[in-house]
Design goal:
Helix content: 25-40%
CATH superfamily of the largest domain: Type I PLP-dependent aspartate aminotransferase-like (Major domain)
Distance between the termini: 60 Å
Shape: globular
Number of helices: 8
CATH architecture of the largest domain: 3-Layer(aba) Sandwich
Structural class: alpha+beta
CATH topology of the largest domain: Aspartate Aminotransferase, domain 2
CATH class of the largest domain: Alpha Beta
Largest sheet: 5 strands, antiparallel
Order of helices and strands: HEHEHEEHHHEEEHEEH
Length: 291
């Protein structure tokens, strides 16, 4: 006899992102908006039932939404909520880790206090596949005694060559002061990209460190988003191949809003920023004509 199961009903409660550019009306400051967005996390936990929520994952800068930053007050409030309901706070630093934000980790940049931190990619500057998981002592303690192991099952875990590459790579970070370079030049990068805001297709320039996005709009008077047809024609049909052909390795993306994302090497400086702006300007002008 088959046992009857009630069908799973997917949650309809969504935790909002912290995109200040697209924030609802009525907020007086980005800090106020950030606290409001964090409080929606508490509502979601209560909606699902605190006993069913194991962890909350957060990127210091949200990637797929288009380089969305948050006020430090947001992360402080998230920490309070996670503590209140015994939810593990995990920082995903796969993209923001190792200097991208102007600090070695985005958690340092924004005062995030995670229980666990995921990193990868830049730990070897992409020369070898490697990731690293950081966690507080209390989460690792069960694996410090007897024969208990952490059965993560990664095929390439702790490969000695990859680990050697990571150590050499981090030595280069220190020797060439790459994180300092990002911290010093990030305001110049932002200012250079903001020159493009005079174009009718550019609605917003946002990001931090060496990770920025240019949001594209079809009507600047009301910041109208590109529709599905425009996104297909402008982003994938034109901008991605055009940027590559012009010598700019960037990404036009619409997993969130329609953006051009730029994450240059940490060795770059003002001369490279000017070059990026000079390449992007005529391409964005042409993209506007194609709308």
């Amino acid at each position: 006899m088959k046992q009857a199961f009630e069908p799973l009903v997917p949650s309809t409660f969504r935790v909002p992102n912290t995109n200040w550019f697209r924030a609802p009306e009525g907020f007086k400051s980005e800090e106020e908006f950030g606290i409001w967005a964090a409080n929606r996390l508490e509502e979601a936990i209560l909606f699902e039932g605190p006993e069913t929520v194991a962890a909350f994952y957060v990127e210091p800068i949200q990637n797929s939404g288009g380089c969305i930053t948050a006020h430090p007050a947001y992360f402080k409030r998230v920490r309070e909520i996670c503590d209140k309901y015994n939810v593990v706070l995990v920082a995903d630093e796969t993209i923001t880790g190792y200097g991208r934000t102007g600090e070695m980790f985005g958690c340092q940049r924004y005062g995030i206090e995670p229980d666990m931190m995921i990193t990868a990619k830049a730990i070897t500057s992409g020369a070898q596949p490697l990731g690293a998981l950081f966690m507080k002592d209390k989460f690792f303690e069960p694996f410090t005694q007897g024969t208990v192991t952490f059965p993560h099952g990664y095929t390439f875990a702790a490969h000695p060559v990859a680990c050697a590459v990571a150590l050499a790579n981090l030595d280069i970070y220190d020797r060439e002061r790459l994180v300092d370079n990002v911290r010093t030049n990030s305001p110049v990068f932002r200012k250079t990209l903001e020159k493009l805001k005079d174009l009718p297709i550019v609605g917003d320039v946002r990001g931090d460190g060496y990770f920025f996005a240019i949001e594209l709009v079809s009507d600047k008077s009301n910041m109208q988003r590109l529709d599905a047809d425009q996104r297909e024609r402008i982003l994938r049909g034109f901008l991605n191949p055009a940027m590559y052909k012009a010598g700019l390795y960037a990404r036009a993306d619409d997993r969130g809003d329609s953006v051009v994302q730029l994450a240059p090497p940490l060795t770059c400086g003002p001369a490279e920023f000017d070059q990026m702006e000079k390449i992007l300007r005529p391409l964005l002008e042409e993209a506007w004509k194609k709308l």
